[in-house]
Please model this.
Amino acid sequence: MNPAAAHNHNSLPPASQGNPVSRSTSLRRLALFVTVIATLALSACSPPANESFGEDEFTPSGSRGGDITIGVVGNFSGPISYVGNAMLGGAQHAADVLNENEPQGVNGRKIELVKCDVQFSASTAVNCLTKMVSVDGVEMILVDTPLGLDTMGPEKTKALGVPVFMPALAEPNMDGNAMPNVFSMGRPITESTDLQVLSEHLVREGKTRVAIIGGDDEFFTEVGDEFVEQLAAKGVTPTTRERFTFGDVDVTAQVQAAAKTNPQTIVCLGLGADCARVALAMERAGVNAPIAGMSTLYMRAFRELAKNASNDAVFTLPHSKTNDVDPAFLQWLFDFFRRYGFKTVSIGGSVAPDYPGLELPAYQAVDVFGKAVRVAGSTATEDVITAMHRSEGYESVGVTRVWPAGSPYPTVDPETEPWITRFVNGHISWDLDPRAVPALEDARIAWEEQMFTGSYETDVDFILAAAQTFRNELEARKDALVAAEGQAKYDERIAELDQAIDLAEQARAEGNERKLPELD
Model:
């Protein structure tokens, strides 16, 4: 119940004018993460037109009094605005939570956010980064993609003189010694086994007549090449490989060419809106083969544009290595929704939640930075870097990350791995993955249908309804669950839900309606 992916854009317009970066440069880090939320009203800090800030103007802020200013550098407009806006939402959530706690903020200093829109442009990204330090005096920076860091290079990135966090998109082959101030919240995307898992699923299901329709940019061309190699290793040769250009509104010709090869499935390698157009063209052409793809299909644009054509789309998503529910995530999830509103997708008469998968690592990045500052006793960059590499790492929303010395990449506990999932009227279901428990998936979808159409005023209301509803759905499927996992596991799940119910009722009895006791 903790998908690590989601998005926020109904359509993807062409890249912005001026000094746009190639799609492959900016999008090759976007394969695994997407999410949704409206842009929050924060102070804009985009550089004035034609104004640039060079490395000679860097003035690292060091540790000082007053508010701790965090710079959020992202794509708040343009073709990947869902990434920047989601990161901004997660950062704002963390700032709100920290500022409400006692002592307020971090070491008594409140968190303030400023943002800068990179507008899908490499030069603007560099301007944003340098302005954050030289003008806004930030003491930490969040970036939605490594676009500006790539352009600046290791020496100038280090010269920024403040910690730089990458909440969602891990750039491969970053040198932690050359850029000791850069911290990724995840592993490099080059370690992803999405394509391997997808190809194994297709072969396992007997779908060996596979047509590929993908983007013609560098990144998705490379992805397509790798997918062809994965299929070849299993004795499968694609029936055809068609290509589209980023933002093409009509892919009828590509779909018709693929349909002539009588495929058993069409694999779309592109962003959500691109693949939605492929799905709709397949529907218009009467293609009965299902569409499949990577985790980019989880973007809200895919479901909102494709509507019913999104049903039974098969793709990969990160999943914990167990089927257990994380109570810490559940509590965080409601707090996010309570503050900023429930986000849902309606398809086929169903109401499915759009989980804030990109907001979560942005929240965790700010939260971890705050904890590192407390450990360091200051916001001085060298002190924070030392604190970030402590052996026990930092826990945030049920996830513990440890950054080894000299590495920008953390070890993450609990680990995730790509599972096969599909859409069922907007809901995600892992029932096709051999590691999943189909009855548990059915219970979760039924739970979502009830939970995300309700109204909850407090954390207690939400947790009580969540636990009681899920308990009822498990009891209704007891025989199937016991057959799949055994009586002991079923009893363990029921006991965990009963504990959540007891703690919520205890909080209500004590008049503590906003903050629940910690769940084990």
